[in-house]
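Readers of this paper often ask what the protein records in our data store actually look like. This encoding replaces a full spatial description with a residue-level series of whole-number codes. For reference, a complete record is included directly beneath this paragraph.
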Amino acid sequence: MSNSSSISRRTAAAWVALAAAGCGAARAQVSSEPLRMVVPFAAGSTIDAVARMVGERYQEHTKRTVIVDNRTGAGGIVGTAVVARAKPDGNTIALVANNFSTTPAIRNDLPFDAMKDFAPIALVGYLPYAIVVPANSPANSLKDLFEAARASRQPITYGTLGVGSHGHFIGTLIEKSTGVPLMQVPFKGQSEIMLGVMGGHIQMGISNLQLSAKQMNEKRVKVLATLTDKRNPLTPQVPTFLETGYGNVVENAWYGFLAPAATPAPVLEALRKDIATALGAADIRSKLAEMGIVPVSAGAGQFGELIHAELEKYTRVAREANIHAE
């Protein structure tokens, strides 16, 4: 059992060293065994769709059978643990998302160590976020929204996927940055959060930027700010959170592949190259863009550094805001 507060920089450095070793290693023999892609969430979810797209193209490229294995339960913990315990032979990998970084920040009873039990393979891409309010909201800017909350002395209600979810952490960071109290309202999924905003059941939502832009264009919501580092081409008229003057809150969802920790470096590098080839296909990039995902060319080292930085950040935020598993 472990908690991300115990993560050492030595472990993070080992990840980077492992990635460097893989880059210089000879290409491993492609296994004749099927490649099992474990998805810790249900079929039909966004992460499942990404796994199936990449898996199909990977199979075409390598002629190796790919099996997408949906292992659901406990908010992604069950499926992630399956990969932590798998034989490190390159035949079992996981596609994970932000919960891989947020869950360890609020729990010390996980059946795996997020840093020690996995080896990063590659980052797939980012899903930018935006802050949305109902179309009939009197707020036309973040200043309007926050000043109204201060005047009313009432917290702003916003949707999340529950305590310790990425949305909860983002709301906590916004609360800390602005000094305006927020109150999370749990929903079952991101689509339900957007419906909650459109129906006026909550005052604010943190949503997929592409979906937010679509609903804005259909005049169902207002997009007050993006949580990106610069303005997005989908919403060039919408300022970033930093531009609004409330601090630098930059948050994205992400998806990436991991393998069991002891997987040999040449095997990891072979997996990385073949996954990169699949992700580089024009139709795959186009489909990812349709889902609002921005593909990135990030290998094991960069992906490992991202996870390490997020584990440290969210552990600190959880400690300071007293966020813990229910």
